[in-house]
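Sample 3 of the quickstart, ligand nickel (II) ion:
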Amino acid sequence: MAEKLFSITEPVPYAGKGGGEELAFRHYDPEEVVDGKTMAEHLRFAVCYWHSLCWPGTDPFGGPTFDRPWFKDDSMASAKAKADAAFELFSLLRAPFFCFHDADVRPDGGGFAQSRANLEEMTDHLGALMETSGVKLLWGTANLFTHRRYQAGAATNPDPEVFAYAAATVKDCLDATMRLGGENYVLWGGREGYETLLNTDLAAEEKQLARFLHLVAEHRHKIGFKGQLLIEPKPQEPTKHQHDFDVATVSGFLHRHGLDKEYKLNIEAGHAFLAGHGFEHEIALAQSLGLFGSIDMNRNDLLSGWDTDQFPNSVAACALAYYEILRGGGFGAGGTNFDAKLRRQSIAPDDLLHAHIGGMDTCARGFKLARRMLADGRLEQLRRERYAGWSGELGADLLAGRLDLDAIAKLVAERGLDPQPKSGRQELLENIFGNISVE
Ligand code: XLS
Ligand code: NI
Ligand code: NI
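Result:
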């Protein structure tokens, strides 16, 4: 390694609460065994390549603020230096996984053939780094939104040549993900939406997007990729309306097009908020629809109203999210990806360590709180009691369709039903949540 980027060379230690060191975990001990699995196995943390290694600190008003050695040019040598630094970061953080887009890891070759060759060479390089470090790939994905060819979308572009270019790019990325043993493949339709309905054919775009997703699913079966295919919903930004608006919208789309057995969802905290939902709502809905896959654990600044991609810092918010994940049985192939970036004044490489350590500690505390909420049992008990009537005779008859409207009307009249409202006990439930402590 050419230059020393970080101030430490040994992996971040677990110092426990009150530990003196700054670059140490206080709550996340990757090796701690909880319910028969290590915390690393429960949480399945992933560091994202794009925000941590590629984003230079730009915002809509200002240029780069970060100065990293590999920013000097877009050569293969710089791409390899960036990859080496990436794996140094993953290893220092003891992160079991990482995630990447093609465009994060390879220089743009100026055309399809050269970009593909660059990706292949970088896939070998990443494979070697994974081998020596033991870091695994949570998911790969294709960047179908940065290049100007995608200004009007990829799959939903009015020009079929753009669709074809995007499809060819996804093929290469899925192949690369499989070669690297990726456990998931994500599709985030960054520009699959519109700015104005005046130039948009919604029905045509829906058909195109469905065809695209079928192509990816067919290719996955053809090459025998065993990982999960995931769609990441987001309602807006960069466009004003996105086809993959939220969990409910994507679920409807998948069912309409016979894709519900092929795809699950990667749910991002900030995107849920932009769609007007709580993160835990999106997770719970995906769980109930059998579509839950993985999470991007990055929050928004709720005052600024856009996708600020910040590291999580609320134990309560993380607990509510992990509670829904645990209620559904925990992660399968998914994990906790930090699709999160530093603030643009945090220009020191060590800030990347502080950010992830804080995020991992917060998640670990949230996870432990969620576990205690489940183990405590009162919340689940009160929920069960609230619906208990449905396990009785009337509930069973109604659900099984044994009564039509005439029969129901007759029954209500004959029995003189006069149902009385009951308390939803929200404050009691919130107090129970508030009184269960992390330790
Ligand atoms: C953008 C998305 C993106 C995906 C991967 O808002 O969150 O980063 O996670 O393409
Ligand atoms: Ni996002
Ligand atoms: Ni994301």
